[in-house]
Design brief:
The chain has 2 domains: 59 residues; 83 residues, no CATH class. The protein is built from 4 helices and 2 strands. It is mostly helical.
Length: 162
């Protein structure tokens, strides 16, 4: 009898302890829940603000002067430019603009969508650009119309020589 009474007592104590722990957890969750909810809402508002800011930035017209530059016809200069595009800048022969500059492969960018570098050969998008506009695009990331080029790493190219 004594053994069964002890088991019942231990079970009863465990039951009381479990109830107390459950009650404490419930109170903690009730107290933390609103804080977490406000935190998640604030994070959502912040992310929406960043997205809006990025959209505004891409639509902004930048006043970047065109450099006074003319494309060279010198084979040595052209070879050096090819070397810079392939080895240093990594534009050609990579995912950006493809192996021959005729367009890169489609890259999945998660929630941002997909991205593909355009055809940068003489028959591509650059056919309507002047030499100065091409130089400005490469060095500053500013397109013909004055808007920013999306995912153009101009900061990597701004110090390249003429």
């Amino acid at each position: 009898m004594k053994g069964s009474h002890t088991r019942g007592g231990a079970s009863s104590i465990r039951h009381v302890m479990v109830r107390r722990v459950n009650r404490t957890l419930k109170r903690a969750l009730i107290g933390i829940g609103p804080v977490l909810g406000v935190g998640l809402a604030a994070t959502g508002v912040y992310a929406a603000g960043l997205a809006h800011s990025a959209d505004e930035s891409l639509g902004k017209i930048h006043e970047v002067p065109l450099p006074a530059i003319v494309a060279s016809t010198d084979p040595a200069v052209i070879a050096r430019g090819r070397h810079l595009a392939e080895a240093v800048a990594g534009c050609i022969g990579s995912d950006c603009h493809g192996s021959d500059g005729s367009g890169g492969k489609v890259m999945k960018m998660g929630p941002l969508g997909t991205l593909s570098g355009p055809n940068i050969t003489g028959g591509g998008v650059l056919a309507v650009y002047s030499d100065g506009e091409i130089a400005r695009l490469i060095r500053s990331g500013v397109k013909k119309d004055g808007r920013s080029a999306v995912f153009m790493p101009a900061q990597d190219f701004c110090l390249l020589p003429d």
